[in-house]
Amino acid sequence: MANISDVVRLSGVSKSTVSRVINNYPHISKEKKERVLKAMEELGYTPNLSARRLRGQFTTTIGVIVPRIVNPFFSNLVDAIEKVSYQNGYQTIICQSNLDKEKELTFLNLLKTKQADGIIMTAIENDWLAVEPFTEYGPIVLCNEYVSDANANVSMIRLDQFKGAYMGVKHLIERGHRKIAYCTGGSFTDIDKDNDRNLGYRKALEEAGIEINPNWIILNQHTIQDGKKVMKYLLELKDRPTAVFTGSDEVAGGILSAAKQYGFSIPGDLAIVGFDDQPAAELLDPGLTTIRQPVDQMGKKAVEVLVGHLNNAGMATATYELPIELVIREST
Amino acid sequence: MANISDVVRLSGVSKSTVSRVINNYPHISKEKKERVLKAMEELGYTPNLSARRLRGQFTTTIGVIVPRIVNPFFSNLVDAIEKVSYQNGYQTIICQSNLDKEKELTFLNLLKTKQADGIIMTAIENDWLAVEPFTEYGPIVLCNEYVSDANANVSMIRLDQFKGAYMGVKHLIERGHRKIAYCTGGSFTDIDKDNDRNLGYRKALEEAGIEINPNWIILNQHTIQDGKKVMKYLLELKDRPTAVFTGSDEVAGGILSAAKQYGFSIPGDLAIVGFDDQPAAELLDPGLTTIRQPVDQMGKKAVEVLVGHLNNAGMATATYELPIELVIREST
DNA sequence: TTGTAAGCGTTATCAA
DNA sequence: TTGATAACGCTTACAA
């Protein structure tokens, strides 16, 4: 594999000049520059990134941490991030944490070990206090995820999850429902990270003078399979809800599918609201009413903010809130 | 950020000894080993991967090239690969080629520049001849994709795509269809990479004495949106097919959704077969008949084979064929 | 505008 | 079993 010395030999200029050509320095004589470029071409030379990383300031690489890439919400987010990064001249390295705290920390080491200039976290498994120390080594941007610690000094791209849940539940209430189940990926406690959605659910019910029925709060649901089990659970309830508000389209899809199997009419016997507006949401029958998260915008903004921090170390952190939207289809 | 010299200072042993501890060399005195470990612990030391890569043989990293991560088939494949790699002590770096030849070559440079020990390609945009030279720098394994060049010296994990298409089309014929459209991601030429599927389609028709109608061959379709357009196109045809065999569940889903909108009954007015058996396939209504590709197995096998090549440079390349299966649901 | 030389954090070779 | 030292490929003072 050709290295910089080979280019030096072939072009007959010094190492520094070659390096300057590689890095597009302004003051090089045309003649030498061309000789170098020609030599690089001829040798099929590519700078060794490990060496650059070891020596230099920049890796032109950003890391993206996702919990589960198979979740379409995240694969779409990653897609958006990857495209914009590429346009900005950054390589993306995608890391799947699988909801594993340890693994998340391992990935954060990319920063410490200068494999990435900055990191976008689309979820955060550890406490912010455990993540914070890594910011010493490079900027971290939170995208889709956020921490409520007022002292946290990070840029965040967030959605108004409170409003999302509130809109969804309120929509069900307006459709006449008063028995509304809530199916979340989190644990419905105050410290929980889905807290904002929980509050939205609570608020909407409260406003309508409806009390929460603990039997209708279903925790830690993530997949299509989970959704099917939820439906089974609902079926066995004596007092059944007439509607269910869900933390993800995947779970909603599972519920919808199982409900039809049990002979439920939707939304007649059970109204369903999802979350995310994943591509499949409109393919379901009936089409799934859901909360649209502007994934592409979020990804784009996250990269822009991260690149901003990278180009200007002093840039103040900020929180950006993107609009969230209720998409009404036939499942409600 | 602590480096090896800091550990040297704190532990009072030489750099080489520290390095030996890091790399688990056998002959070190217990006492020194412990001192080193303690120092590393205390300093929160992590070896700098760039330096290791620059100096050493191994990066304990493998690259995975996918065309589009948003395609659930690929995100599931990546998921499987990532998990097995992690178990084997390898970091995975996921690269999205976006069907771009240039970008693919850029990613292949990971090998040249020692950022990855080996690469798994789940699709291949360039000719094998353009990719081949990279194998000089490390093993490449083809997973899901393959090249028919008999001289190609690569390990491949492949599915019998011919059989997959053949089974799907034959199934339609057995259901009484004779007007069967074919919707592919490729271009239906002999040199095309979807060639095997094309042949399967051809063969099944041929056996039943059915001639191919060129109007029913629809090329370059990939997304849900594409599927919807396909349905619109079919609608405008004077002589319409009664069934359509499709190269992906996404496209099939789009067709199915649009068909229902136009008032078609499925499978009565139009039978549909997908490809992949993506999670959403069973959620559609009617459930989508499709060709199941054993994604998890494929990913696992790919990693195993790659690790094999890595541990044993002399290992002969081989082709592994995994079973493919027809999943019959209600859309046919 | 160009070149020389030091150094980034490791591992491998050699000698002790 | 341990340590000194060179080398990996690059960037960047500094000097010219």
From TrEMBL, chains A, B:
Pfam families (UniProt xref): LacI, Peripla_BP_3
GO MF annotation, one: DNA-binding transcription factor activity
Keyword Magnesium: no
Keywords, ordered alphabetically: DNA-binding, Transcription, Transcription regulation
Keyword Ion transport: no
Top-rank lineage group of the source organism: Bacteria
Residues of the HTH lacI-type domain: 2-56
UniProt protein name: LacI family transcriptional regulator
